[in-house]
């Protein structure tokens, strides 16, 4: 939705329609379920992307038209108590400068503010404003709605089983990390 290219499959390595056969490394598939190994991460990412895109479409309709996925991640990194730009960068897995650019945008949109750190006068904290907290509360409610839609489609037991399975295979220390950007070449 955010930057989708309609009808284009960008997976050039395993896409037969781009010419040529699949490489031996990805051919064959999973004998147990009929799937292919490369499909699992793409389907998981597709599910993630679908949820995020739908949340942001709803947020736009509900008074937050400039909110982007990166803003939500940054606001989570800021947290309820606030954080410095360096802390935000570390939590997101990006440089202080990259975090600073996102923070500047959050400030301009009214989702965050800069304040003196009460424990260290030399430090500046970035804190969420009431507008920022309201946007996060709306996104949480929308995620609940979307989860209910999935439960209506897959059955409540299906969603619970999917969540339980993911909790089983995803290490607890990485389940709620925000630093996915580092996978794509950011520092």
Notable features of this structure?
globular; 187 residues; two-stranded antiparallel sheet; single chain
SSE inventory with pairings:
Elements: H1 39-61, H2 69-78, H3 85-92, H4 96-109, E1 112-117, E2 120-128, H5 130-154, H6 156-169
Antiparallel strand pairs: 1-2
Helix pairs in contact: 1-5, 2-3, 2-4, 3-4, 5-6
The structural class is mainly alpha
Percentage of residues in DSSP E strands = 5-15%
**Radius of gyration from the alpha-carbon trace, in angstroms:** 20 Å
Q: Would you count the extended β strands for me?
A: 2
**What oligomeric arrangement do these chains adopt?**
single chain
Explain this structure to me?
Helix content is 50%, strand content 8%. With 187 residues, the chain is mainly alpha-helical. Strands 1-2 form a two-stranded antiparallel ribbon. The protein is globular and about 60 Å long. The two termini are 27 Å apart.
């Amino acid at each position: 939705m955010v930057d989708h290219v309609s009808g284009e499959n960008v997976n050039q390595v395993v896409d037969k329609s781009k010419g040529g056969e699949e490489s031996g490394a990805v051919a064959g598939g999973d004998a147990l379920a009929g799937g292919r190994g490369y499909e699992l991460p793409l389907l998981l990412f597709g599910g993630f992307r679908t949820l995020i895109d739908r949340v942001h479409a709803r947020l736009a309709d509900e008074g937050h038209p400039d909110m982007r996925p990166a803003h939500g991640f940054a606001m989570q990194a800021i947290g309820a108590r606030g954080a410095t730009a360096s802390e935000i960068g570390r939590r997101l897995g990006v440089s202080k400068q990259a975090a600073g650019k996102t923070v500047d945008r959050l400030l301009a949109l009214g989702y965050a503010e800069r304040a003196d750190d009460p424990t260290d006068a030399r430090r500046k904290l970035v804190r969420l404003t009431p507008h920022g907290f309201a946007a996060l509360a709306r996104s949480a409610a929308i995620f609940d709605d979307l989860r209910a839609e999935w439960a209506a489609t897959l059955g409540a037991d299906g969603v619970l089983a999917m969540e339980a399975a993911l909790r089983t295979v995803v290490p607890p220390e990485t389940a709620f990390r925000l630093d996915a950007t580092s996978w794509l070449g950011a520092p």
